[in-house]
Structure formats: C-alpha cells, structure tokens
Specification:
Radius of gyration: 16 Å
Distance between the termini: 24 Å
Structural class: alpha/beta
Shape: globular
Strand content: 15-25%
Number of helices: 6
CATH architecture: 3-Layer(aba) Sandwich
Length: about 170
C-alpha cells in the first residue's frame, strides 16, 4: 500500500484514565494487522478506530446485528473488495471498541488490558480486510493469523489457556 492512515477517535473519557496508552496501542495493533493482509500497492488505505463505551456498543450491536447487548468490538467494513482500481484512498471501515467490556474481559481472562485491546483491534481490522469466523475453517485461519500478528507484537496467544507471559514487549 502507498500509505496507511488511521483515524482514531476517543468518544468515552474513561479510556484516558483506565488505559492512557490506548490510542498508541490501538494504532500499533491496526498497523500490524494490515501488514499481514493483501492490500493494493498503489492505494492509500484508511481505517477508523473508535474507542467507545459499552452503552454505545450496545446501541450499535442492537441496531446493526439485532443483539441488544454490549460487546467488545464491532467492525463496519465500508469498502467493496472488488474496488481495487483508481487512485482514491481505499476506505476499509471502522472498528469500534467498548471500554468496560475490554477491561472486564481482560481481568476475567488474566490478561493485560493493553494486550487484550491489541487483540481486539487486530481481530476487528482483520474483519475489515475480509476475514471471518462463521465457518470453522475460516475461524481457524483467522485465529492463526491473529496469533501470528500478536506474537510479532510480543503478545501471548490469546486463545491459549496458559497464563500470559510477563516481560518485555516487542
């Protein structure tokens, strides 16, 4: 890709207190994910990340997926995969994350919040790139790619039952 643009919006003030490094962590994870997917070499690629709240994700989840409950991450692809021509930027879409669910899941799973956030950003960005987990074989491929990307970021396998490794980050 020619260039990568990541727009980031924090629309819930709690992120600054709970995870002050959330913006940098999110951008880093999105870049890492996009390095592992096929994208047009002659186009600028744009992704939007929104650090939001459970209340907002509940509304989005209800309105777009028919599930009236909060969730950790939602992805909203905005591009047509066949749209690979022209010089205009390729707008992949939006990834929206819920602070309270991200923190609660990290705590329940014994993970560092920034590692769990990284995983969810990678997961969401892969959805924007066309990956899915509705079919077992696709889920396995997506999980393998997530594990590889997170490993390169110095983050343990999020699907492992083993306790997270402590130490330096890549």
């Amino acid at each position: 890709m020619k260039a990568l643009k990541i727009a980031l919006k924090i629309d819930h003030a709690g992120w600054a207190t709970a995870l002050p490094e959330a913006a940098a962590v999110s951008r880093r994870a999105a870049r890492a994910a996009l390095r592992h997917v096929p994208l047009p070499a002659d186009r600028t690629v744009e992704v939007s990340l929104v650090l939001s709240s459970d209340a907002n994700l509940r509304i989005l989840n209800r309105d777009w997926r028919g599930q009236d409950k909060a969730t950790n991450v939602l992805s909203f692809p905005t591009h047509d995969p066949a749209d690979r021509a022209g010089g205009a930027p390729l707008l992949l879409g939006d990834v929206v994350l819920a602070l309270q669910t991200v923190l609660a899941e990290a705590k329940a799973q014994g993970k560092e919040p920034q590692d769990h956030l990284s995983h969810l950003v990678v997961h969401g960005v892969l959805h924007l790139a066309g990956f899915d987990h509705e079919i077992a074989s696709e889920a396995e491929a997506m999980e393998r790619l997530e594990i590889e990307i997170l490993h390169r970021l110095g983050i343990a396998n999020p699907y492992s039952d083993a306790p997270p490794a402590s130490g330096k980050r890549a």
